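Hi,

I'm pasting everything inline rather than attaching a file, because the server keeps stripping attachments. The sequence lines come first, and each chain or strand is labelled.
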Amino acid sequence: MSSIISRILELKQKRDAIIVAHNYQLPEVQDIADYVGDSLGLAQTAAKTKAEIILFCGVHFMAETASIICDDKIVLMPDPYAGCPLANMITPRQLRELKKQYPDAIVVTYINSSAEIKAQSDYCCTSSNAVKVVRALPENKKIIFVPDRHLGNYILSQTGRDMVIWNGYCPTHQRILSEEVKKKKELYPSAKVVVHPECTSEVIALSDKVSSTSGILTYCKESQGKTFIIGTEIGILHRLRKENPDKVFIPASDLSDCPNMKLNNLEKILWSLEDMVYRITVPDEIATSAKGAIQRMLEIK
Ligand code: CIZ
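And the predicted assembly:
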């Protein structure tokens, strides 16, 4: 074991910390984590832990969500600059103005958003439950969906609901081009194409399965298929290959690499535990309203 890993494990015990890592993190970060998953799974794991400190390896909105759900714990991020461009594509003022334009609409917000945006929302959703959340809302109601236009359009295609969709997008998923997916399909004709709903509608149209990261992992594990073309952030390939050594996983694009997700590394994890930085907190008033939107989502069965 490398000295950096043994020092992290030693400090983790001393500080009473757990390390949780998103499915898009660097392989060595995933391998050292106590739990690897999607943002909601990570926040729920954090909420259940008895550890005092949660070292959250992901991007800022994910650590914020953990801090909202587990307000009695210390949430640390190894790199405070690991932000999310999609979450930054709508500001609280812009959402306030949109709500004024459609005062009767129900606001559904993707988990990839800041705490302030969640606080102004009626419901939160993740990529795994977005369609279910929207289907559960009264049919006569208009729905404002923020901030991801691709996930919004995917929900619209599945539900046919009256939706106002914000024009945000994830730059990493936007880089997955339908032309590239077509070429990969020609190279691997028996492969299943499995994509994330943050992909463009052209890419989604070429897929066999559209799913969140946890859904992608489950689908590939349970499928009889042997080869899969994966349309999401390439960090997920590590877990897919580790959990399915007899299957072949091909990235839909080599460019779908999120630079923010890759800011966390072993050195920064060690420094974070040494110096107890960088603490993520959310002001009480914002946290209480944001928690309401998250709880209403969790109540939808
Ligand atoms: O909720 C998450 O963690 C994100 C951003 C994607 C996914 O599908 O897991």
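Residues 22, 38-40, 111-112, 126-127, 196, 212-213 surround (~{Z})-2-methylbut-2-enedioic acid (CB under 6 Å).

If the labels don't parse on your end, tell me and I'll reformat.
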